[in-house]
TrEMBL record, chain A:
Family affiliation: Belongs to the binding-protein-dependent transport system permease family.
Source species: Tessaracoccus bendigoensis DSM 12906
Protein name: Peptide/nickel transport system permease protein
Claim: Nucleotide-binding is one of the keywords in the record: no
An example Gene Ontology molecular-function term: dipeptide transmembrane transporter activity
Keywords noted in UniProt: Cell membrane, Membrane, Transmembrane, Transmembrane helix, Transport
Highest taxon above the source species: Bacteria
Membrane topology: Multi-pass membrane protein
CDD domains assigned to the protein according to its UniProt record, in alphabetical order: TM_PBP2
GO cellular component, one term: plasma membrane
From TrEMBL, chain B:
Alphabetized Gene3D superfamilies for the sequence: Dipeptide-binding Protein, Domain 3, Periplasmic binding protein-like II
Domain Solute-binding protein family: 78-407
Protein name: Peptide/nickel transport system substrate-binding protein
InterPro entries: Peptide/Ni-bd, SBP_5, SBP_5_dom
Statement: the UniProt record of this protein carries the keyword Signal: yes
Cellular component, GO annotation: ATP-binding cassette (ABC) transporter complex; periplasmic space
A biological process term (GO) from this entry: peptide transport
Record organism: Tessaracoccus bendigoensis DSM 12906
Domain of life, per lineage: Bacteria
Length: 320, 500
């Protein structure tokens, strides 16, 4: 089977999943008890007032009419307006996405940068006390929820030492320095936990590689351990690491929701939580759809990347 | 080799620390200027005061961006604002307001009788929110007598009207504004609207051409926090100058350093009510309701769930309303009396009720506390936590509950017990008559009748009034003029000043 055909089949699955996801999301969000009209009016509303507002917001239209209206918008990449504030959802999501993308992207990057040397070190020194200590440390890191790490980082670095802001976000365009300062703590708290997870995978991957014949041969012809690992091992490690990173990106997106609450970051996660609690369904649907698409896209890309990284998964010469 | 690597790591750590220290240093040394950052919990649901309901909008805009003819001060008194004086005819069927000749909108257009009439007609028109439109019910015609004089002609006397005019109902918007008021407010206040980043902040700036005492801060940011803990840490780390109201009073100890923080405690309009569903057979019996009132130690409840902050009230009236009367002693904590009343009502062998509480800061904790105390007198309260929107749908909307706990934060909301189809299912014609008489009678009548009405609710044990939500404002010592009470819908910036 050619790579192109493989990719084609994956793409078809990908598009099918997207379509199904959109319907399920709409179905589930619309079956939530409670609605935006009641939330807007709160305990000040007369029964008639809530009904009138529902009517005005178009919530009384039949389910499929609303679904088709929504899908018509989605296909044009127009998510409509917020029931709550009347604001257009697209620009709102775009600005929120920027925050979340930086948070998750930098968090994952930092996690990988920490995990590869730490995991390799723990693997190569696995029969020594320091290697065991490193590995135990990562085990502890696994058990810590990111938001809890975040709360502690805030207490130490923002409240007690006063070095970094406790929360909030400043866009890169406004002030790159402030942007960095505001992201250090949230990115670190995400990355600390993630790097623990990843370093365990790196460790076992490195151990596997060091048992391989080619590694022993490389050592025998005079490569140093690090040299052999770098030259011959990394490509093999990369395969398993990529799978894990792909899976973990999805977890990270979810973990970021809590991190955004702790650091008062105006990202997708905090927008989602707020929209759910207000039953601002247009925003809920838009964000969940984007998150689902993002996860599907990540899986799709990981699948495709396998073909590129592992020469055994493609025939010689095809992609050259 | 290993040594050199770890040395390099250490060097990097030191360099990073120094660099970070250097980056943040100016922020702590230099004064903030006259910028003001206020932490708040409830975000606006739109910026048009007339079409939007909810507390978030007037909190930011009332008295700051929009003004009214008369305003409510923090002791509950009605004061002049855009109207320098007003009068009422002896038959109380007509109000005449004289507008301050200096008053003008941020656009430069004058606040004249024409602008007032247009704003009022809009507030009672089709597009207005029902809760606002209803407040105009006693008004028959609104006329511009001359450029500076406005007259309201009433179809029946109303004591509530002047008070209502101090809120969003009476806000005056700029008739020359062409943009949508829901996104671009246009008023005559000391501040102008700059931007609203949904989910994050609303920014105001000083209105340079303000007709009265100029604004003392600019810009002013209302920053919104979904998580109370995040708001506290923002204050503790110096990102905020004020917390408008501490959501979780138990955390007040974090601000005990008097050199860094001032704490202002006062009252609000928020009665935390243990509501009964009067459609429930057991709860339709006044003896059962009284038994429950006796079975709950309310002071212990406030101590346990609200850090001991919050005043005990015995009815639906906060102490800042003229008809307040301390009724908190009517049902003293007395489990024996409660058991006796239950036995009388025929529930000696026990009673099971569903207590469905919203997941707001006071909800689940109060619910568990109440359940424990009711168990003591033989009532099994099954506590169920509902997410807020679900609570609004099932409890408030569909009346699917036996007992619930919720704070009623609207000012002067005694009338909630008289409203048609209210979620308690409470109906008392004598009470309704008292409210009508209070609104149409003289001012002295009003106070007397409402006192009587409040007492009637208490005697009838229509609900249990657990406590009054406190107003706890935290500020840095650099901010002067912070008000203790939060009783108008506005977070009034005009009383604040920077101490030098």
């Amino acid at each position: 089977m050619t790579v192109l055909r493989r990719v084609g089949i994956r793409l078809a699955w990908f598009i099918g999943s997207l379509a199904l996801a959109s319907f399920l999301i709409f179905l589930i969000t619309n079956k939530l008890p409670g609605n935006i009209a009641q939330v807007i009016l709160g305990t000040n509303a007369s029964p008639g007032e809530a009904a009138a507002l529902e009517e005005r917001l178009g919530l009384t239209k039949p389910f499929f009419t609303r679904y088709l209206d929504w899908m018509a918008g989605v296909l044009r990449f127009d998510f409509g307006v917020s029931y709550y504030s009347g604001e257009a959802i697209n620009p709102l999501i775009a600005s929120r996405f920027e925050v979340s993308a930086w948070l998750v992207g930098l968090g994952m990057l930092l996690a990988v940068v920490i995990a590869i040397p730490v995991g390799s070190y723990a693997a190569m020194r696995r029969r020594h006390a320091d290697g065991v200590a490193v590995s135990a440390l990562s085990q502890i890191g696994l058990a810590i929820p990111a938001f809890w790490a975040g709360i502690w980082l805030v207490i130490v670095f923002a409240v007690n030492l006063g070095w970094l802001p406790a929360g909030g976000y400043v866009s890169w365009w406004e002030s790159p320095g402030e942007w960095l300062l505001h992201l250090i703590l949230p990115v670190t708290s995400l990355a600390l936990v993630q790097s623990s997870v990843l370093s365990r995978y790196v460790r076992s991957a490195v151990i596997d590689v060091s048992h391989e014949d080619y590694f022993r041969t490389a050592r025998a012809v005079g490569w140093s351990r690090i040299g052999a690992l770098w030259r011959h091992g990394m490509r093999n490690i990369a395969i398993s690491l990529l799978t894990v990173i792909g899976l973990q990106l999805a977890t990270l997106l979810v973990g970021a929701i809590l991190i955004e609450q702790v650091f008062a970051l105006p990202g997708l996660g905090s927008a989602l939580l707020m929209a759910v609690s207000r039953r601002d369904l247009g925003i809920v649907q838009a964000i969940v759809l984007l998150l689902v698409w993002a996860v599907l896209l990540i899986n799709f890309l990981v699948d495709v990347t396998y073909q590129l990284v592992d020469p055994r998964l493609r025939r010689r010469g095809e992609l050259q | 080799m290993r040594r050199s690597r770890s040395f390099l790591g250490m060097l990097l750590a030191v360099a990073l620390t120094v660099a970070l220290g250097a980056c943040t240093r100016p922020e702590t040394d230099e004064p903030r200027g006259r910028e003001l950052n206020i932490g708040a919990a409830t975000e606006p649901a739109g910026l048009d005061m007339i079409t939007t309901t909810g507390a978030g909008t007037p909190f930011v805009l009332l008295y700051n961006v929009y003004e009214t003819l008369v305003k409510l001060d923090n002791e509950g008194n009605i004061r002049p604002l855009l109207a320098s004086e007003w009068s009422q005819t002896p038959d109380r069927l007509s109000y005449t307001f004289s507008l301050d000749p200096a008053a003008k909108f941020a656009s430069g257009a004058p606040v004249d009788a024409d602008a007032v009439v247009k704003s009022f007609e809009r507030a009672r028109g089709e597009t207005a929110a029902e809760s606002i439109r209803l407040k105009w019910a006693p008004v028959d015609t609104i006329e511009a007598v001359d450029q500076r004089t406005v007259r309201l002609n009433l179809s029946r006397p109303s004591n509530g009207l002047l008070y209502d005019l101090t809120g969003p109902t009476g806000s005056i918007s700029d008739p020359t504004a062409t943009a949508d008021l829901n996104t671009t407010p246009a008023g005559s206040g000391p501040y102008k609207f700059v931007t609203w980043e949904q989910g994050s902040r609303v920014e105001l700036e000083a209105n340079a051409g303000y007709w009265g005492t100029p604004a003392r801060f600019s810009p002013v940011n209302f920053r919104y926090f979904a998580d109370p803990n995040a708001m506290n840490t923002a204050m503790l780390s110096g990102q905020l100058d004020m917390i408008s109201n501490l959501t979780v009073p138990q955390s007040i100890g974090q601000f005990s350093d008097a050199e860094k923080y001032t704490i202002h405690e006062g009252t609000t309009d928020g009665e935390v009510v243990l509501g009964f569903n009067h459609a429930n057979e057991a709860l339709s019996d006044v003896r059962v309701r009284q038994a429950i009132s006796h079975a709950i130690d309310r002071q212990a409840l406030v101590d346990s769930v609200w850090g001991g902050k919050g005043m005990l009230i015995g009815s639906m009236v906060p102490p800042t309303d003229p008809w307040f009367e301390d009724l908190s002693g009517v049902y003293p904590y007395d489990p024996d009396k409660a058991r006796e009343l239950l036995a009388e009502a025929g529930y000696a062998s026990g009673l099971t009720l569903r207590l469905r509480v919203p997941n707001l800061p006071y909800g689940p904790t109060s619910g568990r506390f109440i359940a424990a105390q009711l168990k003591d007198v033989g009532i099994t309260a099954e506590v169920e936590e509902l997410e807020w929107a679900r609570w609004l749908d099932q409890v408030y909307g569909q009346h699917d509950y036996d007992m619930t706990v919720v704070a009623h934060v609207e000012p002067r909301d005694l009338g909630a017990f008289a409203a048609e189809g209210n979620y308690w299912g409470y109906r008392n014609d004598a009470f309704n008559t008292l409210l009508t008489e209070a609104d149409t009678g003289t001012e002295a009548d009003q106070t007397e009748k409402l006192k009587e009405a409040a007492r009637m609710l208490t005697d009838d044990a229509a609900a249990v009034w657990l406590f009054l939500l406190p107003s706890i404002t935290i500020a840095t010592p650099a901010i002067a003029g912070v008000q203790d009470n939060q009783i108008s819908l506005s977070f009034d910036l005009t009383t604040l000043a920077a101490r030098s």
